[in-house]
Structure formats: structure tokens, C-alpha cells
Amino acid sequence: MASETDQLDQLVAAVQASARYRAVAEPLIRSLGERELAKRRGLKEAIKATKNKLHQVAGAYIEEPRYDAWLAEMCGAWAPTDDAAPAESEQRRRAALRQVMARHASTRERLPILDQFYAQTLASIGPIRSVLDIACGLNPLALRWAPLANEVTYTAYDIYGDMMAFLGGYFALEASHGRTGLRGQAETRDMISSPPERHADLALLLKAIPCLEQVEKTAGERLLRAIRADHLLVSFPVHSLGGRSKGMAASYEARFHDLMAQTGIGTGAEVTRFAFATELAFLISR
Ligand SMILES: C[S@@+](CC[C@H](N)C(=O)[O-])C[C@H]1O[C@@H](n2cnc3c(N)ncnc32)[C@H](O)[C@@H]1O
């Protein structure tokens, strides 16, 4: 009979053999697989359960990715045109960004509120010179909507290596077309086992806590304790991926207050609530 380590290696290899999960950070596959094997289900079932969990917390949000094509489309929108006024170029670029953000469910449902979302939630703080975007999805593409300083370091984290390479390409595109003060970095990293160590003016934890808590109940609490940032923008969805909303906002708001009490991070801090049509957000300033 295969040892536990052999079984786990086989599970990881089987999950990575599937095109959908090839680019997922290995430590997350490993820790999910370890839990499933510990349930003594047998290798085949544990592989299936690991894939299901990955789908639930990440795969279900993103459309079939076509990162090369998306980046090429964006490069087209960034290409200089002699006769375009600056406002027109800005509009063209924002339209291209919106199109790509529509490929991830989380940014897609933020599109109708995007013009207000960062303008309102971040109005009281600044200058923002460094950002951590935790479990970011495609949200870094929204940085043009955020009131950031010209000189800004933007560090984004998610579990997909191919998505992070694409975001790296986007940061390079911005930096080479006028935003020379943008230092963007996208890291493939499991935020449950390796939370960010670096300090930032602002940390974004947008609609991420419910996903992380599906893997580990204490993940939200541990991450909130670990994040080192002066301001923390935490948000929750108000509809499920299937569109159901009954009681969701109220139960996530209660979860947020539990987390504040458990971690004590709201103590002595200013906490401001923002209720948007598609998202409930809290800014914690300390
Ligand atoms: C609900 S989406 C939120 C995306 C983004 N923050 C936004 O609001 O647009 C959750 C994201 O968390 C990522 N994710 C899931 N588990 C993760 C983990 N353990 N570490 C880092 N990212 C994770 C998923 O890939 C997905 O992009």
C-alpha cells in the first residue's frame, strides 16, 4: 500500500494534470489534498473532492481564461493614436479593462458600481503609496478607478500562476505607457498558508473571506491578524454566484463583526460601512 506521502504526491500530480488546475499554487492543492486523504476516502475520491473544493473557492469565478488574447486586446487599446484626445484614450483603455474584468464573476459584479466603489470607500484616506490586493482575482485591473498616488507599489496575490503572469503583463503595460510610478507585482501564493509579510498603506481583502473560510474556518481570522496595513478595505458579496441573496448581506455583516471582536483589529480604529448594490464593504483605518 502506498505511504501517505506517496498518496499525497499522486493526488497533487493528478490535480495538476487537469488543465483547469495546472496553474494553481501547489501548497493549496497539497493542504486540500491532505485534508481529503485524512478523511480516509481513498485516492480517487480524495482527488475528486480536492478538485471540487478548488472549483468552489476559485474555478467557479473565472471564465475559460484566454490571457494572451486578453493582453493583446489591451495592448491594442493602449497603442497611441495620433488624433485621439487624452480623454478619449482614457475611455478606450477603461472600456478594454472593463471587458476583461467581466471574465471573473467578482469583478463582473463590481462593474456597475466601479465608478463609485473606490471613489467612495477610499475618499477619506491618502496618499495611498502601497497596496496589497489579497486573493485579487482580476481586481488589479481596476487600479485606474482607485485614488492612488502616482508613485505606488501594488502587490497582488492569488493562487493562479497564469493569472498572475497576465497581471504582471498588465502592470508592465501601464508602467510603459505613462504610469512610470507604478511598481506592480503579481505573486502566485496561497493566502491561507503564506499571508503577505510586507506592510502597506492599504490592504484590499475584497470578497475573499468567505472563499478562504470554505477551506479553513479560521482562515479569515488568521489573515486579518497577519495583515500589516494602515487601512484595510474588507468586503463581502451580497448575492451568491447563483444570484441568491436572501439574508446574505446580514449574515456576512454579522460575520464581519464577529471577526472584529475575535481579532480586536477594530479596537481604537475607525470603521466605516459602505453598502453598494452588489457588495458590502468596510474600511478599517487604524
Ligand atoms: C470571490 S473572488 C474575489 C476576487 C477579488 N478579490 C475581487 O473581489 O474581485 C475570490 C478569489 O480568491 C482566490 N483564492 C481562493 N483561495 C485562495 C487562497 N487560498 N489564496 C489566495 N487566493 C485565493 C480565487 O482564485 C478568487 O480569485
Outline: globular
Number of separate structural domains: 2
CATH superfamily of the largest domain: Vaccinia Virus protein VP39
Low-pLDDT segments, ≥5 res: none
Helices, by number, come to: 11
Largest sheet: 7 strands, mixed
Series of H and E elements? HHHHHHHEEHEEHHEHEE
**Cα end-to-end separation:** 54 Å
What share of the residues lie within helices?
A: 40-55%
Radius of gyration: 20 Å
Query: What class would the helix/strand composition place it in?
Result: alpha/beta
CATH-level-2 architecture of the largest domain: 3-Layer(aba) Sandwich
Determine the strand fraction and express it as a percent band. 15-25%
What's the CATH class label of the largest domain? Alpha Beta
Task: Assign the CATH topology of the largest domain.
Answer: Rossmann fold
Give me the count of strands.
7
Widest sheet: strand ordering: 3-2-1-4-5-7-6
Summarize the structure.
With 286 residues, this protein is of the alpha/beta class.
Describe this structure in words.
Helix content is 45%, strand content 17%. By secondary structure, it is α/β, with parallel strands linked by helices. The protein has 11 helices and 7 strands. It is globular. A 7-stranded mixed β-sheet has the order 3-2-1-4-5-7-6. β2, α8 and β3 form a beta-alpha-beta unit. The chain folds into 2 domains: 56 residues, Helicase, Ruva Protein, domain 3; 182 residues, Rossmann fold (3-Layer(aba) Sandwich), CATH 3.40.50.150. The N and C termini lie far apart (54 Å). Bound molecules: S-adenosylmethionine.
